[in-house]
Amino acid sequence: MRFFDLLNLIIENLGRRKGRVALTAIGVVIGTAAVVVLVSLATGLQKNATSQLGGIGDLTKIDVNPVYGDPGMMKAVRVGGGGGMAEGGPVVQKLLTPETLVELAAIPGVTAAIPRDYLQANGYLTYGRLQAYGNIMGVGTSDLSVFGYKLQSGTLKLERGTAVVGAMMLRNFMDPMMRPGQEPPPPPDLQDKTVKFTITKWVQDGENGMEVKKNYQIRVVGIIAESRSEADYSMFMSLDDVTAFNEWAQGRRINRTRDGYAMIAVKVADIDQVQEIAQTITEMGYQANTPMAFVEGINSYFIILQVIFGGIGAVSLLVAAIGIANTMAMAILERTREIGLMKAVGATNNNVLSVFLGEAAGIGFIGGLGGVLLGWASSKVLNVLAISYYTSQASQSGGPPPSVVVFIPVWLPGFALAFATLVGLLSWLYPSLRAAILVPVTALKYE
After folding, report:
1. Is the pLDDT of residue 388 over 60?
2. Under a CB-based contact definition with an 8 Å cutoff, are residues 67 and 93 in contact?
3. What percent of the chain has pLDDT over 70?
4. What is the DSSP letter of 225?
């Protein structure tokens, strides 16, 4: 039997039993739609969660820190709270030294290894009558664009005596003399303005201690746009400036070979290499932290969620498959004489098997196609309703609304359609085999 003759016969047989085919296909429609909607919901939640994670940091950046541990594990160096040598401080297994910078930069895939240090003293900013506290960070680069920060104004290039501040840090400026009930002042515009930076430390004077202050003039050359990251509440300065501040606060010179850096930021060219390079850094004896590890954990969770949701939808398809098998078994009994006639005129077992399997695949295909369309429409409606709800919630809480709640991956409609067709095919396999092996004489005499 030629392929097109077989196809015409299958279509004709399905057309003669429109009601039965429609009722059987409805189960496949519901099951396929359930798979599409549930998997799309899990995928949409994953995309929404991943987009919200954009604020946890640059996914191509690895923060490298010294590892603290037992002194018996390897030769250790004791450092004081300010990074200098001192007895009784925490035990460091391996310092972040200038040699470390060379080692990290030599790792394949690493584009930059930038040392960073924090202000290890109390410090605050003064602009007019306003004062603010923030995260003061020194970076060993003259251009912050390597971190991918977006500018609100000014430049990302750093020099001695200059600073680049995060947009949210401007909101920290308050009037210390403000009276209760008085309206807070608006955030100042510090672009190209000079602010006073005051550092304080305690010195021992006999039995009593006294607070000593030192003032610096810092020019703000750039404002970083809000990104929901650490940059929002930070003031970036050159590493030499922050090192000088820490030396004054600690009352001694800082030797990076002996004292090390507080942290090194490693930039990776390809996001797919981040985890591999982080593992390499860990094996070198350092502590490597990257937001990518957290993102991958979130993705693994949602992949499991997709499998669970898809499995719940597949249960509906399983119920539909049982219905198809029952329909087919009844059809075999009703069409026994037809099968005998087909064999009497020369149809082989394979021809009969192909006809009935083709009808099964046709019902599965029709039901799958209807299920994909119903699932797509339902997902769109659910997405609109969910976004409307979350938008109203976000307007009350002040957070950003999600951009998507239900997302249909490109592969899902094709997969659902093929899976529904396969379910229909397998559910009719046993009845079709019974029909194929019927003896023609017996089939013709069947009442």
Report:
1. yes
2. yes
3. 81
4. P
Tokens 């010179």 correspond to: 253
d(CA 347, CA 339): 9
Per-position b or e across 314-348, b if 16+ CB within 10 A of its CB: bebbeebbebbbebbeebbeebbebbbebbeeebe
Interior angle at CA 185, CA 138 and CA 161, nearest 5: 25
Could you tell me how far CA 315 lies from the centroid of its own chain?
A: 29
**Residues β-bridged to residue 212:** 201
276 residue type, one letter: E
Element (H, E) at 270: none
Q: How confident is the model at residue 179 (pLDDT cuts 50, 70, 90)?
A: confident
Burial (CB count within 10 angstroms: exposed 0-12, middle 13-18, buried 19+), residue 119: buried
Rg of the chain taking only CA atoms, in angstroms? 35
Please give the helix or strand (H or E) that residue 82 lies within, else none: none
Length of the chain equals 447
DSSP type of residue 74: S
d(CA 223, CA 242): 19
pLDDT in tens, 7-63: 777 777 777 777 777 877 888 888 888 888 888 888 888 777 766 655 555 778 888
One-letter identity of residue 68: Y
